[in-house]
């Protein structure tokens, strides 16, 4: 099945077997979204992957809080520099399984691009199956024609999340660990206070996996059904806006609609409140 047909199915995940079969398709753009990665001589990748630099190129580096959403212009410019066009089909992965790749996926969704999927299991699963890897090398990309179209309903800020926390039809789910959510341990970010957003519930992102692979849709639905009652809008938070996107990915796999990520997450909320 060709990528153009496959993309119309609008799946959020692709398997490593699917990627292996389609890796030479000219419409495919494979992105390594490993966070805090430095491209050095010994850096490895899945063949033909391009480095999606979340921290330096796909975040607002002048913002007060980490991993802040870049401007439409910045995102469009950097995506084009990676050779991404409007007819591309994007697959993103990272070196942890599914971690920062979900953030890259959500960024593309937020800027209006639908033909994007996460590689289920990421680089660890790819290596586990003994599929080929290679070293990074300098290579030019033909500039793409990607056009960004911000979807503001997919992202929210401090003021927005304060309103959502008072809305009976909105459920805020926090992806941090139970110990952090319950204020039993310090936050890893120095100087950031313990706490949680009022009326939020805890769904640690680690509970969504079987090893490196996202749990089945049926298993994920059971997890969400235990938390979601009458709410019709789900808002996701975490420490700094990265793992919140894993919850958004899992909810999308479960066909939930009306999903929003709190960009600043607890780093912003805990800083701006007492």
What does the model show?
With about 270 residues, this protein is α/β, with parallel strands linked by helices. It folds into 2 domains: about 5-150, Oxidized Rhodanese, domain 1 (3-Layer(aba) Sandwich), CATH 3.40.250.10; about 155-270, Rhodanese-like domain (Oxidized Rhodanese, domain 1, 3-Layer(aba) Sandwich), CATH 3.40.250. Helices cover about 30% and strands about 15% of the residues. The strands form 4 sheets. The protein has a 5-stranded parallel sheet. A 5-stranded parallel sheet has the order 8-14-13-9-10. The protein has a two-stranded antiparallel ribbon with strand order 3-7. Strand 11 (about 210) and strand 12 (about 215) form a beta hairpin. Helix 4 crosses helix 9 (about 245-255).
Strand order of the largest sheet: 1-6-5-2-4
Overall number of structural domains: 2
Radius of gyration: 18 Å
Give the CA-based shape.
globular
What count of helical segments does DSSP give?
A: 10
Spans with pLDDT under 50 lasting ≥5 residues?
A: 1-9
Distance between the termini: 54 Å
Topology, please?
Layout: H1 3-7, E1 13-14, H2 16-22, E2 28-32, E3 44-45, E4 50-51, H3 72-81, E5 89-93, H4 100-110, E6 116-119, H5 122-128, E7 134-135, E8 155-156, H6 158-164, E9 170-174, H7 178-181, E10 200-202, E11 209-210, E12 213-214, H8 217-225, E13 233-237, H9 244-253, E14 259-262, H10 265-272
Parallel strand pairs: 1-6, 2-4, 2-5, 5-6, 8-14, 9-10, 9-13, 13-14
Antiparallel strand pairs: 3-7, 11-12
Helix pairs in contact: 4-9
């Amino acid at each position: 099945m060709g990528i153009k047909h496959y993309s119309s199915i609008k799946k959020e995940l692709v398997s490593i077997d699917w990627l292996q079969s389609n890796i030479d398709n000219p419409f495919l753009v494979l992105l390594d979204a490993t966070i805090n990665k430095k491209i050095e001589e010994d850096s490895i990748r899945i063949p033909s992957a391009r480095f999606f630099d979340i921290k330096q190129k796909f975040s607002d580096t002048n913002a007060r809080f980490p991993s802040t959403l870049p401007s439409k212009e910045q995102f469009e410019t950097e995506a084009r520099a990676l050779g991404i066009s409007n007819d591309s089909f994007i697959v993103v992965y990272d070196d942890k399984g599914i971690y920062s790749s979900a953030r890259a996926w959500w960024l593309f969704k937020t800027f209006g691009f639908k033909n994007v999927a996460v590689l289920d299991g990421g680089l660890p699963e790819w290596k586990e199956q003994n599929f080929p890897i290679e070293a990074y090398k300098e290579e030019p990309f033909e500039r793409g024609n990607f056009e960004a179209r911000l979807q503001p309903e997919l992202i929210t800020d401090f003021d927005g999340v304060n309103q959502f926390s008072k809305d009976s039809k909105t459920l805020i789910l926090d992806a941090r660990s139970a110990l952090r959510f319950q204020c039993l341990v310090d936050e890893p970010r120095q100087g950031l206070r313990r706490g949680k957003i009022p009326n939020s519930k805890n769904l640690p992102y680690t509970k969504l996996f079987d090893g490196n692979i996202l749990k089945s849709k049926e298993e994920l639905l059971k997890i969400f059904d235990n938390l979601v009652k009458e709410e019709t809008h789900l808002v996701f938070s975490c420490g700094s806006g990265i793992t919140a996107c894993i919850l958004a990915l899992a909810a999308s796999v479960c066909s939930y609609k009306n999903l929003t990520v709190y960009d600043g997450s607890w780093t912003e909320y805990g800083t701006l409140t007492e």
